[in-house]
Design goal:
The protein is α/β, with parallel strands linked by helices.
């Protein structure tokens, strides 16, 4: 199996069917052997039911998993990746925010031996933003990037640590995520730091991105979570 696609979800009942159908159609069109894993973070709506009942080509295995406990996006991504079977694993956000041609670009880079990990970036010169973040979130995003790079200087080379598009060689992904402990917003930071520790060859690629303004992110809990988890990653 070439590719496992993990979609972490929390109350995405209105989007998940379209996510699954769009991704499965892309895999079929590009003749990519793959599976789709919906990793649910204890949704309280019909996300699991709708995902489980979505019909796609039988050549593409579809799994819906849930621990039944709301622990955060990082945990949902981790559980999905640990159950994946692909030579390459991609986690991608729900809502069709990233144009899917990035999948083929990432696969070509990893399978061609140019890198072991590909991360999408909204901030490279070739990136296209078709619908930007709301103004207030743009300000918060810029402040966050400055804060993270001041706290973790080794991450200066990355233009976008938080983009919901990351692709990793399968066994390496399982190694990195099995070692991770951060369940919340900074799980991406933890994985990048672990990848650097393992001397993983990482390449950013420009993407075409559309903001999904139906976000599950709330500012006040997230600010506290960022401070707490930054302390953990910096000093523990």
């Amino acid at each position: 199996m070439n590719l496992s696609i993990v979609i972490p979800v929390y109350n995405e009942a209105e989007k998940i069917r379209n996510d699954i159908i769009t991704l499965s159609s892309y895999l079929m069109e590009k003749h990519i052997s793959g599976e789709i894993i919906i990793s649910d973070d204890a949704s309280t709506d019909d996300t699991i039911k709708i995902a489980s009942e979505t019909s796609i080509n039988e050549s593409i295995p579809l799994s819906v998993i849930s621990t039944g406990e709301h622990r955060g996006k990082g945990n949902a991504v981790r559980q999905g990746i640990l159950q994946s079977k692909g030579d390459v694993v991609l986690f991608i956000d729900s809502g069709n925010t990233v144009k899917l041609d990035a999948i083929s670009k990432g696969l070509d880079l990893i399978q061609g031996g140019e890198c072991q990990m590909v991360i999408g970036s909204r901030h490279l010169s070739g990136s296209v933003i078709t619908k930007p973040l709301a103004f207030q979130r743009q300000i918060v995003s810029k402040l966050f990037r400055i804060f993270i790079k001041l706290i973790f200087p080794s991450l200066w080379r990355f233009s976008d640590t938080q983009c919901g598009f990351k692709m990793v060689k399968g066994e390496l992904a399982k190694t990195l995520y099995s070692e991770s402990v951060i369940n919340g917003f900074l799980f991406d930071i933890e994985i990048l730091k672990k990848a650097q520790k393992h001397n993983v060859a990482i390449q950013e690629i420009p993407i075409e991105w559309t903001c999904d303004r139906d976000s599950r992110l709330s500012f006040i809990p997230t600010i506290w979570e960022v401070i707490r988890d930054s302390w953990k990653l910096k000093f523990k």
